From TrEMBL:
The keyword Ligase does not apply. Pfam families: AA_permease_2. It comes from Nitrospira defluvii. Coiled coil: none annotated. Its main location: membrane. InterPro entries: AA/rel_permease1 (IPR002293). This is Amino acid permease. One of its GO terms (molecular function) is amino acid transmembrane transporter activity. It is found in: Membrane.
């Protein structure tokens, strides 16, 4: 009896002989997630999922990256007041991908997000590449967010008359830095929260979300009275090239909804609550982003916006110094919640890939009391803390974005494949306008990828090549699909 249960439904493509295209059936994915040794605790509601989504979406993108997107840098032009259009373009791209995510998440409510969806539709190799690039997405994002948190935290200390020594707030270098200690400390604190439990993490995130939503509402309310519409002219100083380049930057601000789908295995009613969490968080944040962009570019001329703390400095330059201190405090809270959800996403991807045998089995260990993947949490927390303390991260948003956009493309393609291969499978949420929506999603993602700098593409290909080597030397041979008995073996009669 035990042997029969272990075999489970045969995987489509498993017996073809080519491991690159073997897929994992939805039935097997759901069965593996319910195995006692890997089962996670289902505690999240629609409110929790929406809070996690807003917690991940509103943070570094709106408090830091919006400045670079408006002004531009040495590698690309800025959008100027046209940043409002940039947020709309990125929001539409994410909405198209979100429709595909929602159908997948309701059908396959397990950890792993785009990695798991690719495994069920496009084959093991593309699933591995998706997971490998999700590791890049979340890992680099966590480091960048932690460093951004440290910068805002140091600004608040300065406003209070305190200042940490330079060596303790900067990575090693010729200028005297030794380690960014605040960045490492916040990562380790978040790691502790994530080990205790995802429900506790969601509660902490939702509390922080309320704080930063209040701060954003405060900025809009105070700033609106001082908006000078003359600052909106010229609206697109560098034309659509600037708007498109800025959209590729601020896309970083939207990727939090992907993290919502990584927690599917811990949702109480994933078939109903996951689509709600994805769409609600995306809609709320898009409206807030456009509103903040309109107020910020109306307060001061776009060329004078500070790229390091644009929202807080915008209020200060408009004469609201007390308001700048409030916004800076809210930024620390906002960036903290982003770090929580980004690390949560990273950990769940590690967990899902390990459970499938593509990464070491140690990573899929579950804490006996808290029912959280504590081994993957330890690894993620320590690695991110070390990198945040010692490495100066440049162009981190671009690296995060290209990995995310690649994953979005595969999700959009995968939903078309699954509609064709399993048209009668139950779909609690059914995406409308098939296949127009996923095709438009692919084109929109590729369009944003086009605007990313060529150095980002080079790094992306190097990371992908490293991933291919890891899969060829470890993942291909240790995959659970490779070691599971074939269909014929499973169905062979037993001796009397």
């Amino acid at each position: 009896m035990e042997a029969d249960m272990d075999v489970g439904p045969p995987e489509r493509g498993h017996c073809v002989g080519n491991p690159l295209f073997r897929t994992k059936s939805i039935e097997r994915i759901l069965a593996d997630s319910d195995a006692p040794e890997h089962r996670l605790k289902r505690t999240l509601t629609a409110w929790d999922l929406t809070g996690l989504g807003i917690g991940a979406i509103i943070g570094t993108g709106i408090f830091v990256l919006i400045g670079t997107a408006i002004v531009g840098d040495a590698h690309r032009p800025g959008a100027g007041p046209g940043i409002m259009l940039s947020f709309i373009l990125s929001g539409i791209t994410c909405a198209l991908a979100a429709l595909c995510y929602a159908e997948f998440a309701a059908m396959i409510p397990v950890a792993g997000s785009a990695y798991t969806y690719s495994y069920a539709t496009l084959g093991e190799f593309l699933a591995w590449l998706t997971g490998w690039n999700l590791i890049l997405e979340y890992g680099v994002a966590c480091v960048a967010v932690a460093i951004g948190w440290s910068g805002y935290f140091n600004n608040i200390l300065k406003l209070c008359g305190l200042e940490l020594p330079y060596w303790a707030t900067h990575p090693p270098g010729a200028d005297g830095g030794i380690a960014n200690i605040p960045a490492a400390i916040i990562v380790l604190l978040v790691t502790g929260i994530l080990i205790v439990g995802v429900k506790e993490s969601a509660r902490a995130t939702c509390g922080i979300v309320l704080i930063k939503l209040a701060v954003i509402a405060f900025f809009i309310a105070v700033g609106t009275s001082s908006v000078d519409m003359a600052n909106w002219s010229p609206f697109m100083p560098f034309g659509f090239a600037g708007v498109g380049a800025a959209a590729a930057i601020v896309f970083f601000a939207y990727i939090g909804f992907d993290a919502v789908s990584t927690t599917a295995e811990e949702a109480k009613n994933p078939q109903r609550d996951l689509p709600i969490g994805i769409f609600a968080s995306l809609a709320i944040c898009t409206v807030l982003y456009i509103s903040v962009a309109a107020v910020l570019t109306g307060l001061v001329p776009y060329s004078q916006i500070d790229v390091h703390a644009p929202v807080a400095e915008g209020l200060r330059m408009a004469g609201f110094k007390w308001g700048a201190a409030i916004v800076a405090t809210g930024a620390v809270a906002g960036i903290t919640s982003v770090l929580v959800v980004m690390m949560l996403g990273q950990i769940r991807v590690f967990f899902a890939m390990s459970r499938d045998g593509l990464l070491g089995p140690w990573l899929s260990g579950v804490h006996p009391k808290f029912r959280t993947p504590h081994h993957a949490t330890y690894l993620t927390g320590v690695a991110v803390a070390i990198m945040a303390a010692l490495i100066p991260i440049g162009e981190a948003a671009d690296m995060t974005n290209i990995g995310t956009l690649f994953a979005f493309v595969l999700v959009c393609v995968g939903i078309i494949v699954l509609r064709y291969t399993q048209p009668n499978h139950p779909r609690p949420f059914r995406m409308p306008f098939m296949p127009v929506v996923p095709i438009l999603g692919v084109l929109a993602c590729l369009g944003l990828m086009y605007f990313l700098p060529w150095m980002t593409w080079i790094r992306f290909f190097v990371w992908t090549l490293i991933g291919i080597l890891v899969y060829a030397t470890y993942g291909m041979r240790h995959s659970k699909l490779a070691t599971r008995p074939s269909t014929k073996q499973a169905e062979a009669p037993r001796p009397a």
